[in-house]
Write a structure and sequence with these properties.
- This is 2-(R)-hydroxypropyl-CoM dehydrogenase.
- The protein contains six helices and seven strands, in the order E-H-E-H-E-H-E-H-E-H-E-H-E.
- Helix 5 links the parallel strand 5 and strand 6.
- Helix 1 runs parallel beside helix 2, helix 1 crosses helix 6 and helix 4 packs parallel to helix 5.
- The chain is of the alpha/beta class.
- It is globular and about 50 Å long.
- It has one domain: Rossmann fold, CATH 3.40.50.
- The chain has a seven-stranded parallel sheet with strand order 3-2-1-4-5-6-7, sandwiched between helices.
- The structure holds NADP nicotinamide-adenine-dinucleotide phosphate.
- NADP nicotinamide-adenine-dinucleotide phosphate binds next to helix 1.
């Protein structure tokens, strides 16, 4: 087992995942980074090295493909034999009223936002447990959404997948936190990334939650002992936007 702290971050090529990977890199962590696009990942790996990361493994995987998700988990475990933080961040959004949103879009959301996290939790559990045994604790950090807690019109399918992700992590805590492995979901309102581009005409980017805000919560979770379980953190925008996306 590596002596260094190690994280696997999905959706690490840009947005929230990139900010979390950068925060860990600045502390010298080893990292596996994943997303679909190889070129963007390789570029990001170089940047993480400049920031101070130890070893950085690049493993592309499409979260709609269960075999690729499993291969990502196996690749990480074989490379490092350790997982101090599993950051389940890759996700997708779909907007539309229940009256119109096609079921095939719901299915795709479910594959990426719920099924892939389930596969990652299951496949990386041996590495998470053994890390907790050797190092004291291992943490799962899953990026949900405020719409998984407070419903938002036209985000029903997306919100439902994020509510499922929160539920999955709560059950995970019941089953695994006694072994030193616990999960925290982070449920933000709009964060200034590519994903929220469509609504920047209504909500200026500089009034959104920043990727740095989310990375700060994620990093804080890794500082907690095995005896502190933080189930869910809601990050909401100020004023009359409280509890709205
Ligand atoms: N931005 C927001 O307002 C907001 C608010 C609440 C929660 N969230 C959640 O935060 C997480 C990150 O979102 P973000 O805003 O940072 O998004 P983003 O800027 O669009 O980045 C998404 C990342 O995930 C990867 N990705 C997308 N689809 C994938 C797939 N099918 N398989 C593998 N990787 C995939 C992307 O790389 P590739 O395209 O190369 O695969 C990229 O690295 C998501 O779970 C999202 O639901 C976002």
């Amino acid at each position: 087992m590596s002596d260094n702290r190690v994280a696997l971050v999905t959706g690490a090529s840009r947005g929230i995942g990139a900010a979390i990977a950068e925060r860990f890199a600045a502390e010298g962590w080893d990292l596996t980074i994943s997303s679909r696009g190889l070129e963007a990942l390789q570029e990001k790996a170089g940047r993480l090295g400049e920031l101070g990361a130890g070893r950085v493994e690049v493993i592309p995987a499409d979260m709609t493909d269960p075999d690729a998700v499993e291969a990502l988990a196996v690749g990480h475990a074989e490379a490092f034999g350790r997982c101090d933080a599993l950051v389940i961040n890759a996700g997708m959004g779909q907007k539309g009223p229940i009256a119109d949103l096609p079921v095939r879009r719901f299915d795709r959301l479910y594959q990426v936002n719920v099924r892939a996290p389930y596969i990652l939790l299951q496949s990386l559990l041996p590495a998470l447990r053994s890390t907790a045994e050797a190092a004291g604790a291992a943490k799962v950090i899953a990026i949900a959404s405020i719409t998984g807690v407070y419903p938002e019109p036209e985000l029903s399918a997306y919100g439902a997948t994020k509510a499922a992700l929160i539920s999955l992590c709560e059950t995970f805590n019941l089953e695994e936190s006694g072994n030193g492995v616990s999960a925290t979901t982070i449920a933000p309102g709009y964060v200034d990334t590519d994903m929220s581009e469509w609504t920047k005409g209504l909500i200026p980017a500089d009034e959104m939650i920043s990727v740095g805000d989310v990375a700060t919560i994620a990093h804080s979770v890794t500082q907690l002992s095995r005896y502190a379980v933080l189930p869910n953190v809601i990050l909401t925008r100020p004023g009359s936007n409280l509890h709205r996306a």
